[in-house]
From TrEMBL:
Presence of the UniProt keyword Oxidoreductase in the record: yes
Protein name: Aldehyde dehydrogenase
SUPFAM superfamilies in the record: ALDH-like
Stored InterPro entries: Ald_DH/histidinol_DH, Ald_DH_C, Ald_DH_N, Aldehyde_DH_dom
Region (Disordered): 1-22
Stored Gene3D superfamilies: Aldehyde Dehydrogenase, Chain A, domain 1, Aldehyde Dehydrogenase, Chain A, domain 2
Domain Aldehyde dehydrogenase: 13-479
Keywords noted in UniProt: Oxidoreductase
Gene Ontology molecular functions: oxidoreductase activity, acting on the aldehyde or oxo group of donors, NAD or NADP as acceptor
Record carries keyword Oxidoreductase: yes
Length: 483
């Protein structure tokens, strides 16, 4: 047996056919560990194992499935510090973020779906008149939620704990089995999650994890004939390719894709609140989050002051080692991604944007760091305003009146989460209802974890979180009988 991580297939820890590759700490550029490179054959074997386990698991009492999830939550919570240390090393997240928003949220999600909910509900009886189908009478009906089957979960690199947990926990709660394909940059945390689930009593084959840098591994777990549904979080470009494959076999899809969140700051807004909320783009995961308010639309009356405050806010943030308690902005995930983010900043300059803060690489010898950057005097047709940068970069666009602000916000290929800041709550809600986005934050960037989550347009297909995730990972069956 090698010293590297092994795959988890059918309840067994299996040596990868493709050997191992290094997982790099984006803050230090040192090797965190060695991730397994599965072969397409091993990926298909994981799907076959999930198919074999589905029948028994789907018939297990919901209370028994919930108990397994509850035990997993306890195991994850009990190992919070070592799990968070690994997550920080793999992703470059700050210690506080790794503990609270990565491992902490993962434990909370397993605990949330350890609460069983009714899987069936009565439909009001219907009186039917006599006809060719039979005599007059009353029919009763039940709507029953059934598991979809085998679910492939393809997860993102920005949160290797909360993102997989948000897929695995509701899928298992509904009686599905899963094959997890984690992001190649930071898969080791997902294997720790699989260990926790195994220790919690998940039967063999119910949860499988296969990783790899090769595209063929992801293609195998999406295209497998054993798979009934694909749940994907990642870029819109990859989501399109997955959707094309799913469409050929009519597989269910849940797609959480890109975003270019518009933050409308109206002229009566509390600018301190707006700056604190928008500023999370600079700090939270170093802007590597699809829900970030990256495209700020500021009404003329507050535009100048807002740019000044945001520029000062960005300039004061400490960029550095995520292990240090006062670090606010860690690195981005890789050298390649840093180059991509920097190329967008340079593109913004060429397009005519004014660099108010940042714009230069922080003076650090090692690590993939990007300075929090604010681009002002932008227009909505600039590429930096239209394309997802996925880094600590905010663009600011002025507008004159409410009508223009709404039109600019909706002039986007994306529609995941938008934001409105206004001192007049009625006005803010009126504007929010006009925005073409799956969610709108009113004077906050906070989330309600029972509210449906998903996007319009190129930001995705479907909704999850809370009870909506149970809907997403189930099919509805009607049972009808004569009364």
């Amino acid at each position: 047996m090698s010293d590297g991580q092994r795959l988890f297939i059918g309840g067994e820890w299996t040596e990868p056919d493709g050997g191992h590759y290094p997982v790099t700490d984006p803050a230090t550029e040192e090797t965190v560990g060695w991730a397994p490179e599965a072969s397409p054959g091993q990926a298909r074997a994981a799907c076959a194992a999930a198919r074999e386990a589905f029948g028994t698991w789907s018939r297990t009492r919901p209370e028994e499935r919930a108990a397994v999830l509850g035990r997993a939550a306890g195991i994850i919570r009990g190992s919070l510090e070592p799990y968070a240390d690994l997550a920080r090393a793999e992703t470059g997240a700050t210690t506080a973020t790794a503990r609270a928003m990565q491992v902490g949220v993962a434990a909370a999600r397993f605990r949330r779906y350890a609460c069983t909910e009714p899987a069936e509900w009565a439909v009001p009886p219907q009186i039917n008149e006599a006809g060719p189908m039979g005599r007059a009478g009353v029919t009763g009906a039940l709507a029953v939620r059934q598991p979809v089957g085998v679910v492939t979960c393809v997860t993102s690199y920005n949160n290797p704990w909360a993102n997989p947990a948000g897929k695995i926990a509701p899928a298992l709660a509904m009686g599905n089995t899963v094959v997890v394909k984690p992001a190649p940059q930071d898969p080791l945390s997902v294997y720790r999650m699989a260990e926790a689930l195994q220790a919690a009593g998940v039967p063999p084959g119910v949860v499988n994890v296969v990783s790899g840098r090769e595209v063929a591994v992801g293609e195998a777990v999406v295209a497998s004939g054993d798979v009934d549904m694909v749940s994907f979080t990642g870029s819109t470009a990859v989501g399109r390719r997955i959707a094309e494959v799913c469409g050929r076999d009519m597989k269910r899809q849940l797609m959480e894709l890109g975003g270019k969140g518009a933050a409308l700051v109206l002229d009566d807004a509390d600018l301190g609140s707006a700056v604190a909320g928008i500023g999370t783009t600079f700090s939270f995961y170093s802007g590597q989050i699809c829900t970030a308010p990256t495209r700020v639309l500021a009404q003329r009356g507050v535009y100048g002051r807002l740019v000044e405050l945001l520029g000062g806010y960005a300039s004061r943030l400490k960029v550095g080692d995520p292990r240090e308690p006062d670090t606010v902005v860690g690195p981005v995930i890789s050298a390649e991604h840093r180059a991509r983010v920097e190329s967008y900043v340079e593109l913004g300059r060429k397009e005519g944007a004014v660099v108010v803060a940042g714009g230069e690489r922080p003076p650090r010898e090692r690590g993939f760091f990007v300075a929090p950057t604010l681009l002002a005097d932008c227009t909505n047709d600039m590429r930096v305003a239209r394309e997802e940068i996925f880094g600590p970069v905010v663009v600011v666009i002025p507008f004159d009146d409410e009508e223009e602000g709404v039109a600019l916000a909706n002039d986007s290929d994306y529609g995941l989460i938008d934001y409105v800041w206004s001192g007049d709550v009625a006005r803010a809600f009126r504007v929010a209802r006009r925005l073409r986005a799956g969610g709108v934050g009113v004077n906050t960037v906070g989330r309600n974890m029972e509210a449906p989550f998903g996007g319009f347009r190129m930001s995705g297909v479907g909704r999850d979180v809370g009870s909506y995730a149970l809907h997403a990972y189930s099919e509805v069956q009607s049972i009808v009988w004569p009364g």
